[in-house]
Specification:
- The chain has helices at about 5-15, 30-40, 45-55, 60-80, 130-135; strands spanning about 20-25, 90-95, 100-105, 110-115, 120-130.
- With about 140 residues, it is an alpha+beta fold.
- It has one domain (about 20-135): Ribosomal Protein L22, Chain A (Alpha-Beta Complex).
- The strands form 2 sheets. It has a 3-stranded antiparallel sheet.
- Helix 3 packs antiparallel against helix 4.
Length: about 140
């Protein structure tokens, strides 16, 4: 590894130490369906976001709810205290495309149709309101 690359990698690692996030990888749902759920909670206060996810009828909302709880726990672990009401909010959430499994489905007249079974990766960042006021 070159010197410049190593320096930038160390800077990136240091920046991640001050961020509070959780990742969910290889979720067997299409990224488009997951983005519908994620867009509902982007920028919301975490307790309100948990309520929205709990009562959502989408299948992906249960996975995102569990991910949000993990991100909150990561914040509590790094700060060594419990999160208070109205303190934490969802700062960034993004859904990236994962691997796509390619399958064949029998079709009429000896043909085969391609089926793409998509997956995705979700990254969720939480932050406290006091941290944003300082910046």
């Amino acid at each position: 590894m070159g010197a410049r690359k190593k320096i930038s990698a160390e800077k990136r690692k240091e920046a991640l130490k001050t961020m509070y996030f959780a990742k969910l990888r290889n979720v067997p749902t299409s990224p488009r369906k997951m983005r519908l759920v994620v867009d509902m909670i982007r920028g919301m206060e975490v307790n309100r976001a948990l309520g929205v996810l709990k009562f959502s009828s989408k299948e992906a909302s249960a996975r995102v709810e569990k991910l949000l709880r993990s991100a909150i726990a990561n914040w509590e672990q790094k700060n060594e205290r419990k999160a208070e009401d109205g303190e934490l909010f969802v700062s960034k959430v993004y859904v990236d495309e994962g691997v796509t499994l390619k399958r064949m489905r029998p079709a009429p007249q000896g043909r085969g149709y391609r089926i793409r079974k998509r997956s995705n990766h979700v990254t969720l960042f939480v932050d406290s309101k006091n941290t944003n006021d300082k910046n």
